[in-house]
Amino acid sequence: MNMHKHDVQHKQAFDEPLWWGLFSAGGVCFAVLLPAVILFIAVLLPLGLLPAEALSYERASSLLFSVPGFLFVGAVVCMPLFHAAHRLRHGLFDISVGNDALNKKLMYGGATLLSVLALGIVVAGFLR
Amino acid sequence: MNTQQISTKQVSVKRYLPDSSAEPFWQQYELPVDDSTSLLDALNHIKEQLDSTLSYRWSCRMAICGSCGVMVNGIPKLGCKTFLRDYEGDIRIEPLAHFPVQRDLVVDMEIFLEHLAAVKPYLIDDNPVKPYDPKTPETYQQTPEQLERYKQFANCINCGLCYSACPQFGLNQEFLGPAALTLAHRYNLDSRDHGKKERMAELNRHDGVWSCTFVGFCSQVCPKHVDPAAAVNQGKVEAAKHTLIALFKG
Amino acid sequence: MDKSSSQRLPPLKRNWWLKHRFFKLYMLREATVLPLVFFTLCFLAGMVALLQGADSWQGWIAFMGSPIVLLLNLLALAASLFHAATFFVLFPRVMPIRIAGHSLPDQVTVAGQWAGVVVVALLFFWLLVRSGA
């Protein structure tokens, strides 16, 4: 029993480096890419401050449904999602909501699902 | 600045006397202060002149022994390095947070010492230098560059202020915590040490480096400017490398 | 040594972070991901719209222009900048860069990262304003 407890306490966290690596990479993307992405796509575009053809249906499609578009989605959707998942998981622990084992599955699982969805959309658009 | 100018200030001390009262209570003291009065001087004045029942730890008066840590207005401080001249109005003195209080300002730091011992904060060398022989002196050799790598992290005086500043330690007392993880990193960075593998087994646990969320308050309160938050997070990079290597080696 | 020989205190109450300005700023930093998630969901919706066709795409742009969505995305923009300001200063502390035995001053690393933000913005300007026109 004591041996078992010792084993549990010294369990190596093999998954944590992965989550932390994704968190860090996502943090860089969030900080370096997202200010410009949000400014141009979520502010200037809907306010009509971009040239009419800049993100027309045809141009937006050809930009997004391409190999660079695939990489772009990875950097501005998937990576930041894992960054957010990590911070939300730890944030929930900070305010004692739920339990960490379940929160981990929900958060990283959610980020994985949305990432697959996002990349899947690019592939679907590329193949059509 | 005229250090002779004496005025009076009021400090509130959180008392806990388990023999006479089950609950802690606040007690106010008026005392004379000048520009050079440290918080430790104030506590000594209380103890000697006003109230001999007050308990607190202290020793060196010069921020090297690390025993006079207390909370001042909710922030962990060394009593000897804190000056009353820097405080206007209320000065509330409490025992260090996140540690069980034994009496008044004296806390039980056993858990910190356990976490410290767990990371083996000493040189581990499979082939140590031979016993000193004056004819053929053999010593550990280290270049200034090698020293520079860990020097900052070697300034820790084990005062425990970072544990009182760390909410993750407050939320989960099994977390090894800032000072222990910093000391582990300090020895891992030391060119004379070969114990990194043993320490990595402790660091790469959920309660090791991975419980840290870089709140960073530990580094703010550290009286020796060790920057434990940086050390812990460099420890994450090391733990990640360690895991990758273990993965490839199978 | 028995690991559980010493006394353990119960966890902090969930409002611990309200007691100090430093902890409130920490929580604000952690909360920057909330508007980020909102923007990301908007962006995903835009991708779906783009896949569906030209009408959906125009509909999505109109949706993005509705006051509440625009306001939340402006919040996301502010959050991304606040995140950048807090994240960039951590980087040199986590990964100190050493060149020829000397560590690079923190300010250089931080300035380099802000330069990255500007370069990306200029890239977008070039892609969407200059060559798109």
From TrEMBL, chain A:
The keyword Ion transport does not apply. InterPro entries: Fumarate_red_D, SQR/QFR_C/D. Keywords: Cell membrane, Membrane, Transmembrane, Transmembrane helix. Coiled coil: none annotated. SUPFAM superfamilies: Fumarate reductase respiratory complex transmembrane subunits (SSF81343). Pfam families: Fumarate_red_D (PF02313). GO terms for biological process: fumarate metabolic process. The chain crosses the membrane at residues 20-50, 62-86, 106-127. GO terms for cellular component: membrane. NCBIfam families: PRK05470.1-1. This is Fumarate reductase subunit D. It comes from marine sediment metagenome.
From TrEMBL, chain B:
The keyword Mitochondrion does not apply. GO terms for molecular function: 2 iron, 2 sulfur cluster binding; 3 iron, 4 sulfur cluster binding; 4 iron, 4 sulfur cluster binding; electron transfer activity; metal ion binding; succinate dehydrogenase (quinone) activity. Pfam families: Fer2_3, Fer4_10. Keywords: 2Fe-2S, 3Fe-4S, 4Fe-4S, Iron, Iron-sulfur, Metal-binding, Oxidoreductase, Tricarboxylic acid cycle. Its cofactor is [3Fe-4S] cluster; [4Fe-4S] cluster; [2Fe-2S] cluster. One of its GO terms (biological process) is tricarboxylic acid cycle. Its EC number is 1.3.5.1. PROSITE patterns: 2FE2S_FER_1, 2FE2S_FER_2, 4FE4S_FER_1, 4FE4S_FER_2. Pathway: Carbohydrate metabolism; tricarboxylic acid cycle. Residues 147-176 form the 4Fe-4S ferredoxin-type domain. Residues 11-99 form the 2Fe-2S ferredoxin-type domain. The keyword Nuclease does not apply. InterPro entries: 2Fe-2S_ferredoxin-like_sf (IPR036010), 2Fe-2S_ferredoxin-type (IPR001041), 2Fe2S_fd_BS (IPR006058), 4Fe4S_Fe-S-bd (IPR017896), 4Fe4S_Fe_S_CS (IPR017900), Beta-grasp_dom_sf (IPR012675), Helical_ferredxn (IPR009051), SDH/FRD_Iron-Sulfur (IPR050573). Belongs to the succinate dehydrogenase/fumarate reductase iron-sulfur protein family. This is succinate dehydrogenase. It comes from marine sediment metagenome.
Automatic annotation (TrEMBL), chain C:
InterPro entries: Fumarate_red_C (IPR003510), SQR/QFR_C/D (IPR034804). One of its GO terms (cellular component) is membrane. Pfam families: Fumarate_red_C. The keyword Nucleotide-binding does not apply. This is Fumarate reductase subunit C. It comes from marine sediment metagenome. The keyword Transmembrane applies. Keywords: Cell membrane, Membrane, Transmembrane, Transmembrane helix. The chain crosses the membrane at residues 69-91, 111-129.
